[in-house]
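Beta sliding clamp: structure tokens wanted.
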Amino acid sequence: MRFTVSQSSLAKALSVVSKGIASHSTIPVLGGILMRASNGTLEMQTSDLDTSIRHKIAANVEEEGETVISGRMLSNVVKNLQDAAVTFDGGEGTINVTCDKSSFHLNTLNASEFPSFPEIAMERSVELPCDALSEMVDKVYKVTSRDTSRPVLAGILLNVEENCVRLVATDSYRLVVCDTNVETSSLEGTFEMIIPGTAFHDVLSLPSDSATVIIGATTNQVIFVSGNTTYVSRRIEGTFPNYKQLLPSSCLTTMRTKVADLAGALRRVSSIATSNSAVRFDVDPDAGLVTLSSTSPDQGDAREQVNVEVEGEANSICMNYRYVGDCVGALSQDSEVTLELQQSMRPGVFKSYGKINYLYLLMPVRM
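Answer:
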């Protein structure tokens, strides 16, 4: 096997496929990258048996062949090379890598031991814009659960119908719903599935030259295709919670303020909350103020008032400041956020409207 590629395109390709390398596997070949050179193309594959990634780049192939090279070693080598042509020569047991005045003699593994890439036969699929979808996933990903006993909560519910894309995630303490309008006229009916949160986040953080991503489903797999990259992950089986029945139909109090003002006050008041994660919100409609306060038995207490627009009656709620911080951190600091309150031990609902509509329901803590 002998081929030549540019250092920049190889480094970019490695940043894509490295997401699929098994980090703690006892199977040596899963820590490597399958390199297959043929017909003017270098195909690179990685797999941890749950996730498989394939990426293709142009190459000057003088002799076809395939081999497996340690992913960590190859990445360390390539990122430190000059931005010049990189030549690979060999493959059976060892391979020579040369670039400018640098040369490396690397050990390789047998390509026949590498897992076959999954067969892709999508039963249904939808094509969506990468930019909008990536922004939406960033807003909901933190709310996915890390509890392995309830795998369905580790997923993000994707629903596409009638030119609307909606993402939903919950960890049972909070619920987030994002939606936006996109052109989906080519889609017949509704596309809905639960996608592993980590896979969804990873695939949209990969560098890509394509403006869209195709998301498809088989019986037990979710497939992403964007440009020259194919990402395959296991589907999450189960039924996503009926989130619509959790959303309150009315509220007693509505307050509206700038995200930056609320985020700044929250950050300052919570700075003393070392042993108590609760921050209290007291809404005063007559004064047009919300008072944020926190108390720490060891450190003392803190409070700050923020100007707000209020509709309804005076109200109070106590919430985990970290969870509130995740909410305001997902929003543009220049935008406005609304907090809708019911009774003190009922969930608070944050809402923000724009190109992407955002709803964040948060369970209260005891005052």
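DSSP finds six helices and 26 strands in the chain. Residues 84 and 364 are 57 Å apart (CA to CA).

Cheers.
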